[in-house]
Amino acid sequence: MNKVILMGRLTRDPEVRYTQTGKVVCQFTLAVDRPFANQEGQREADFIAIVVWGKIAELCGNSLTKGQRALVDGRLQIRSYDAKDGTKRWVTEVIANSVEFIERKATGSGAPVQSGDAGPKSEMESFGSAVPFDEEIPF
Amino acid sequence: MNKVILMGRLTRDPEVRYTQTGKVVCQFTLAVDRPFANQEGQREADFIAIVVWGKIAELCGNSLTKGQRALVDGRLQIRSYDAKDGTKRWVTEVIANSVEFIERKATGSGAPVQSGDAGPKSEMESFGSAVPFDEEIPF
Amino acid sequence: MNKVILMGRLTRDPEVRYTQTGKVVCQFTLAVDRPFANQEGQREADFIAIVVWGKIAELCGNSLTKGQRALVDGRLQIRSYDAKDGTKRWVTEVIANSVEFIERKATGSGAPVQSGDAGPKSEMESFGSAVPFDEEIPF
Amino acid sequence: MNKVILMGRLTRDPEVRYTQTGKVVCQFTLAVDRPFANQEGQREADFIAIVVWGKIAELCGNSLTKGQRALVDGRLQIRSYDAKDGTKRWVTEVIANSVEFIERKATGSGAPVQSGDAGPKSEMESFGSAVPFDEEIPF
DNA sequence: TTTT
DNA sequence: TTTT
Description:
The structure is a homotetramer.
Chain A lengths: L1 E9 L4 E4 L5 E10 L11 E9 H10 L5 E14 L5 E14 L16 H12 L10
Parallel strand pairs in A: 4-6
Antiparallel strand pairs in A: 1-3, 1-5, 2-3, 3-4, 5-6
The structure holds 2 DNA strands.
């Protein structure tokens, strides 16, 4: 048993990439509010890395944008990678089985907001490339 | 909503410590089997850091030992700390609300296994001190 | 371990009542969409009874109205009661630990919708009295 | 989102049956301890109906027996049926996606306990027939 | 016996 | 109407 359920907001537009073997993968970060306030009386958030594979990855890439709320159901997974300084590092990610789009971000035209244009794209790429997907994560 | 449910085995005896303000905290790592086999046909595991506070922390310290199964219910949390090289690092932990002891490890005498003796103790300490609890994590 | 997580819409305004010992209890039904279509190609819903106690009960009574979405976290519980025909019956309910209000129902004035007026009230009362709370459900 | 996670003990051997269209279905009841004691200081249990379909149904039928612990992950579903008195009734069931066998019941020989022989079989049948599966529940 |  |  390895279950995770999170509700939060995307900290940026999701990034969709393809592995060497052609699998679709979508990555984004979810800001999940903590259930309590800190010493300064502020409610912080945890910024949790989400990974989605396959058909749902495409849906997320097409439908989700920065700031939207999403309800993620998945499992915790830990990946190791080699840092630039030669040491081994670990990242903890939630591999999503399903993603529910809680709200559609309203636009002036009423049309669904479309993610991804030149500006944010490069920023996302640098984010995504920090921990490469050398190995396939089976679904 | 931030929920995690994990079932796995302790990779070592739990470590119990006290914060500067006297709160009890118990840490251990849970090996959670992946739901599929890798390319070599082996089932790997994720090694997930668990943190327990308060009364349950004491119970875990007294009752759980390396190799035992536990069912953990909690929430994902990310802590930052300063690495020895001066850079900022993040650890992802599961803050447990409850821990169910699935099985009592059998001994020759039939008595419950008692955790903690000199050998493994020092090893645990080094593990625990890697990411110090400078700040209180409110419950 | 007894955990339930549901997201759905209230089928009517919640009903708030008080037990003989003065505890607040709030009841409503959540329509939760099924994850698939039936033979006629329609997606049905399950109508699940929710029970909330204490402070959260009051919040639900004040903030939730028919049609709104809510994210409920709780546990399954089965209560028995005596039907009018003298036989024993059982109801399955979700005892909520927390209820997240996913959306505020929009009004013309922009003010939060207020639940409860004479009309629907009597209808709710009849609903609530079907299975009385003779015994306290400890929290 | 409709998620249920339960850990408890089978109150009887599971019953395996087949629908008119040849689908395998396995039913059992899980006794799930309540997290608190009642007024008499006793911990009660909720007796929750579990339904499993397909391959996992067969595994459950072959591997689980009365008294064993199981960890069930599934979703809540409500089925209606016509009572003998002509009225409509509802049953709430947990449709399991996965069932983890927490422990193997020990036998003198050390061999896995095999469920199902003539005696209990007839008892199970009567249990199962109380609420028939006239309609297929899609998976 | 229901919600959108 | 039940499990340990």
